[in-house]
Structures are given as structure tokens and as C-alpha cells.
Amino acid sequence: MQEIVKSVGIDIGTSTTQLVFSRLVVENLAGSYAVPRVCIVEKEVVYRSDIYFTPLISTTEIDAEGVKEIVRSEYKKAGMHPSDLQTGAVIITGETARKQNANQVLEALSDLAGDFVVATAGPDLESVLSARGAGADKISEDDRTTVANVDVGGGTSNIALYQKGVLRGVSCLDIGGRLIKIQDGKISYIFHKTQELAAAHGIRIQVGDKADVSMLTRVCELMAEHLMQALYLKPQDSEHAGLYTNDGKPIPAEPAVKGVTFSGGVADYIYKPTADNVFRYGDIGVLLGRAIRNHPALAQCTLYQAAETIRATVVGAGTHTTEVSGSTISYAQDRLPIKNIPILKVSEEDEAELETLASSIRNQMPLYRPEGKPEQIAISFTGRGRTSFAEVQKLAEAIIEGAKEAIESQFPLVIVVENDIGKVLGNALKVKLNHEKDVICIDGIRTLSGDYVDIGEPLAGGHVVPVVIKTLIFNS
């Protein structure tokens, strides 16, 4: 049986804020006597908002009321009321995620956004969101190749590397179209790293200087050079490491990048370079797009068209609910309910061997540190083929090996598994952790990478817990 739901995606980025309203058709694809498997079988964008510059009070503070006014006005233009929407997502990304009052902005939107997926995405998670919006994950899976998406925004460039549909690495650099701003024909702002990079190559630029196209083109060419280095299409020089956001790390050198997609506000000018009115947005975004497209190293790989560029973002969230039998789950008392928990998904390919399962968990952990500290996550995998007592014990050891960071955090260890091994796996984890860590292990749940989960309070004398899986919806 199908159900139609309305959803909204609210994306608040470094440079721009936008909304998308969608119509989703959800359907239970499981048989009558099977665990429900509700999927989104159809999606249609019914309204796209204008794209606004994100209002700021200062360089470190978002104008919460300004953002709220944008959202309120776009609801009105779309003919939508908060009560019309069953689900959605609010995502704060880029530099805005690091502003002092990001959480206050989320609170200000609470009456308009309701009980939605709400996340402050650090640079690593933002890399994944933009890559999925651009369709890089699907391209890499369909073409059985390695594709990197480069999301070139206003303040940062996020890179996510996919091999045959599996995430292999992420990184973020302080390279973007609004790191130099132009007003009345003069430079009105320069990001300190950009100024230092230019100076190292003999280019002296100061606030108040005339916006000289040839000089700023040279700066953009330096930025493009470092994006090529980040993709290993050029050797990385001694300056390169200093351009990663928050002293971050590059994507792995292997597997080698075979294809690339571009998203973000600068992407349109990578796919379609122009010489007209290059300072039309009061920044160097147009020049940066041209410099990236013209860089000779880009010819070393296939340039794929992104499914979306500036709108490569979350357009909403679909939800479904299923009940899980208490006879096959294990949970810590007084730790439920929990809500809006991001799912760290281990791919079936990585799950095949316990060693790669552990490394997959360990390598994905940095995605879930939006403010440099671990947050509550749920680790998910199928659990297929591991039903014997001995196999479950080995599985528990692999989880503990990979999830050390989560185990050492203040949060309970949450496991979501598709196969019916929740109770025995949960008990094995508790024993191996000497009953010193709260463990919640539920089964019969199918998830996707990027999903969020709510686990409600136990019902029916503790025999059942309600579970809501929230799936982020992308344009691609």
C-alpha cells in the first residue's frame, strides 16, 4: 500500500540558504509476513526556493532571525504550512556549521521545521551529503569506477571519494568562491589563508585594492592547482597540507581518481565557464570555476556531469516506522528514547571480512565529529551469514575493534543489524565490554548510508521498541 507524504529540505550553507519542497511516495515492499521494508518509490520536487545569501550578523554569528524570515517567506510562496509537512531535514553546513550560534538557528526554526532530521554537518559529513546530491556515489557504482565529487562552495571545497559506490575517503580544503569578496570594484575581504597563498607566489593583494581580473585569476589558478593536488592529479607540494580545513587530512591516494563531478555554487562555472561580468556575485567564484575547468590536470580523468550543482543538497527526508520484537533485541535500561541518531553504514562489500568491517567503522568515525568531538551514532550492517555462536563472538570483537572511539564516548553503543541476531550480538558485546558500557542492539532493520534513526521507549512490557528510520532525500 502506498502513502504520499510532503517533505521539506532546508539547507543553510556558508554562502547560500535554500529550501526545497518535495512529494514522496512510500511503499512497503516486504511481503505480508515479513519485517516491513518501507521504501521511497517515487519523488518529485514540487517547489524550489530562491537561493539567498546566508544572513550573518558578523563573521562568527549567523543572523537567526534573518534565516527564519527567509524560511517563513518561502513557506508562504510555496503555499505550505508546517502542518502540511510530515517530514523533512534541516542541515547547517560549511563555515556556518562552525559559527557560534548554529544551534540557536536550529532552535529558531523548530516551529517551522517540526520533528525533522536536524543536523549540523561538519566538513566530513558535508562532503558525503554533497557527493550524494551530485550523484557521484551512483556514478561510481553504475560505471564500476572511482569517482571524486568536489563541492566548491563559498568558504570551503569538500571532496568525497567513492569506489564502486562505496565511500573511500573525505577531505575539506579552505578553497572557495567567497574567500575574496568584491564591492564597488574593490577587494572588500580576503581570507587569511588565501592572502598567504597569494603572497607566497609573489601576489600582493590587500583589502581596498582594485579588483584586478588578471591578478585575481592568478590567485584562482593557485586554488585550482591545490584542488588538483588534493585529487592526486598533481604532486602535493609543501604548501598543500596547510590548506586543509581544521588541519584535516587528504583523501587516500588509493584507489586513484578516475572520474570527477563538481557541485556547489562554483560548479556551474566549471561546467560552463564564462567571461561575462566575472564579479557578478561580489566574489571570485566565476574566476575560480574558470580556473578549475582550464587546469590541464583535469584532462587526466573523466569529467562527469553532476546531477545537481548548487542544489546538490538534501531536499528532505522520508520516514518509515517498524516495530522490532523484544525477543531478538538487547537494550540498556534508561537509555531510551534516542532521536535523530546518524547511521554509520558498513557496506556489504566491507562487511564480507571482519578486518574490513572493523576498518570501515574506524575510518568513518571522523564523519561524525561536527564540532571536533564524537557524537552519538548508530553502527549498521546486515549481519548476514553470521549466525553461529562463534561467528557472533568474532563479529562482536570486530565491532569493538572498529568502534573504540564510540565505546570511549559518553554515549551508548548502538548497533542496528538487519539479520535476527540482535539479542545474542548485544549480549556478546556487553560481556566483552565487561558490562561497563551501555549497549543497544536492534535487528530486523534495513538502513542506507546517511540515514538517521529514532528508537523509542520500550512498549508492551519491554517486548517491543518502536523504530523510525529517516532517509535523507537528494535530487539525484
Detailed description of the structure:
The chain is an alpha/beta fold and 476 residues long. The protein has three domains: 2-122, ATPase, nucleotide binding domain (Nucleotidyltransferase, domain 5, 2-Layer Sandwich); 136-303, Nucleotidyltransferase, domain 5; 332-457. The protein is 27% helix and 29% strand. The protein is built from 14 helices and 22 strands. The strands form five sheets. Strands 16-22-21-17-18-19-20 form a seven-stranded mixed β-sheet. A hairpin with a 4-residue loop joins strand 9 (146-152) and strand 10 (157-163). Helix 7 (213-230) crosses helix 9 (285-294) and helix 11 (354-364) packs parallel to helix 12. It is globular, with a radius of gyration of 23 Å. The model has no long low-confidence stretch (mean pLDDT 84).
CATH domain class name of the largest domain: Alpha Beta
Number of DSSP helical runs: 14
Mean pLDDT: 84
Shape label: globular
Distance between the termini: 25 Å
What is the number of beta strands? 22
Instruction: Give the amount of beta strand, in percent.
Output: 25-35%
**CATH-defined fold name of the largest domain:** Nucleotidyltransferase, domain 5
Question: Major β-sheet, in short?
Answer: 7 strands, mixed
Strand pairing plus helix content: what structural class? alpha/beta
Q: In total, how many domains does the architecture comprise?
A: 3
Strands across the major sheet, in which order?
16-22-21-17-18-19-20
Per CATH, the architecture of the largest domain is: 2-Layer Sandwich
The helix content is 25-40%
